[in-house]
Amino acid sequence: MARVALRGYCQVRSGDKGDTLDLTVFAPNDGFYRALEEQLTPAAVLEHFRGLARGPAEVYPLPRVRGIKIVLRNALGGGGPASLRLDAQGKSLAAAMLRMTVEVPDEVLAATPFMRPPRAVLQAPGE
User: Fold this and answer.
1) Does residue 14 contact residue 23 with C-beta atoms inside 8 Å?
2) CA-based torsion, 115, 116, 119, 120: positive or negative
3) Nearest CA to 28 among 104, 97, 117, 120?
4) Are 24 and 70 in contact (CB under 8 A)?
5) Which pLDDT tens digit goes with each residue over 47-106?
6) Which residues form the AtuA-like ferredoxin-fold domain (predicted)?
7) pLDDT number for residue 125
8) Which residue in 15, 17, 64, 104 has the most C-beta neighbors within 10 A?
9) Which element (helix H / strand E) includes 69?
10) Chain segment 9-58, per-residue pLDDT in tens
């Protein structure tokens, strides 16, 4: 087993409405999806967002698209104009979600390519 950050292997989509955050984490393959399904529990998500979200959290498996949908309430400091946060929208917490780590079996990790940013992002301007 290896502990890895989601950012290297998964994708996330986000949305928000008022003080509710809606995230879906997408796994790159079935083995990784099974690891997410076991570990992205409401308690684990609330712990990951400790200090940012009060909850409750709801987690819904979406096996046909290898996704885990997370609905996190009381997560945006009141939401939009009511919040004193610099960015009280779901997209900022989507990036934070990708910092979460999970344990993945070695054989699954070996079969899962690490996602790298596009080449243009890796080069300095003028290179």
Assistant:
1) yes
2) positive
3) 104
4) yes
5) 999 988 898 999 999 999 999 999 999 887 665 554 444 454 666 788 899 999 999 999
6) 5-102
7) 57
8) 104
9) strand 67-72
10) 999 999 888 888 899 999 999 999 999 999 999 999 999 999 888 989 99
pTM here?
Answer: 0.83
In order of their start, the domains of the chain are 2-101 (3.30.1360)
Helix (H, G, I), strand (E, B) or coil at 41: coil
β-pairing, 101-104 vs 2-5, is: antiparallel
**What is the rounded distance in angstroms from the CA atom of residue 22 to the CA atom of residue 73?**
9
Q: Which amino acid is at 68?
A: I
CA separation, residue 45 to residues 12, 49, 53, 57, 116 (Å): 14, 6, 9, 7, 25
